[in-house]
Amino acid sequence: MRIPAARFLPWLFLSLAMAAPAVALDSERATVDGIGFRVVRVDLARERLELLWRDGEGAPLAGIEGLRRQAQSQGRRLIFATNAGIYDREYRPLGLHVEEGRTLRPLNTTPGAPRAGNFSIQPNGVFYVEGDRAGVMTTRAFAAAGLSPRLATQSGPMLVVGGAINPALDPDSDSLKWRSGVCARRPQEVVFAVSEAPVSFHAFARLFRDRIGCRDALYLDGTLSRIWTAAEGYAGAPAFMVKPYAGMLAVFEPDKPAR
Predict the structure, then answer these.
(1) What is the largest CA-CA distance in the chain?
(2) Count of domains in the chain?
(3) What is the DSSP string of 74-138?
(4) What 3-state class would DSSP assign to 205?
(5) Nearest 5 degrees, angle CA 149-CA 153-CA 157?
């Protein structure tokens, strides 16, 4: 039976609207020095950001696919995910890790030495969400602030501090890695970025300061870093470089209101 166009089109538009995701994150591609980056913005006024490490039985989720499987088993739909901060050889967050107000790993204030790893390049820092407001601070500033965040992940180094690129980042460095990072351009606007090819710390910092417009930005991790969105799939490190994560930042589709 042939359906008249006048009757078919409204049904088609309704079907498309029902199939469209309830959350459409702002995602774009940017370039610095010829290197591409995937940049994703999360609006905390519309989307709820979460930090997850383990499943309900205490086993590490380990990766974005594990996170998606858990979400499906709970009747939730994952919209966005990326790795959180740096972790140790036991696959535990190396610094502060707060989930839903619970501190699972304490703030790490040990300075260390640069050769001990990126986390030790000073200053390192914390990305946090307290209520519906997000921020990035150096570890020292966070320790003095007396905040009670809903979620927080500590990593390092800071890429941008007070509008200036971290002086510990050498503009002439030939250390090139896939890299991910985060900033809060405004209190309710969180911006994540991952490089699509190996890049220096300094060029990555310039992305956040000059292209995104952040006064404070934090490096999350490198080599294994990826961003995943429901609309575009994976960006960042190739699959063969990826290792288990100790924490992931995620956005899920909001629960549908009961009728």
Answers:
(1) 75
(2) 1
(3) TT--EEEEEE-S-B-TTSSBSS-EEETTEEEE--------GGG-GGGSSS-EEEEEETTEEEEEE
(4) helix
(5) 130
pTM, entire model? 0.88
Answer whether 17's CB lies under 8 Å from 23's CB.
no
Rg, the chain, Cα only: 19
In a domain, 4, yes or no: no
Q: What is the DSSP letter of 60?
A: B
The β-bridge partners of 127 are 136, 153
* DSSP label at residue 232: T
pLDDT over threshold 50, residue 103: yes
In tens, the pLDDT along 111-157 reads: 776 555 899 999 999 999 999 899 999 999 999 999 999 999 999 99
Is 10 within the bounds of a domain?
no
Q: Is the Cα torsion angle 185, 190, 191, 194 positive or negative in sign? A: positive
Q: Which H or E run contains 7?
A: helix 5-19
Residues, the chain, total?
259
Residue 258 lies in a domain: no
Q: Which of 67, 68, 143, 128 is nearest to 97 (CA)?
A: 128
Burial of 28 (0-12, 13-18, 19+ CB in 10 A): exposed
The answer to whether residues 181 and 39 touch, using CB atoms and an 8 Å cutoff, is no
**The two three-digit tokens of residue 214, written as one number:** 């952040």
- CB 122 within 8 Å of CB 84: no
Whether 1 is in a domain gets the answer no
Look up the domain containing 96 and give its range.
22-105+116-252
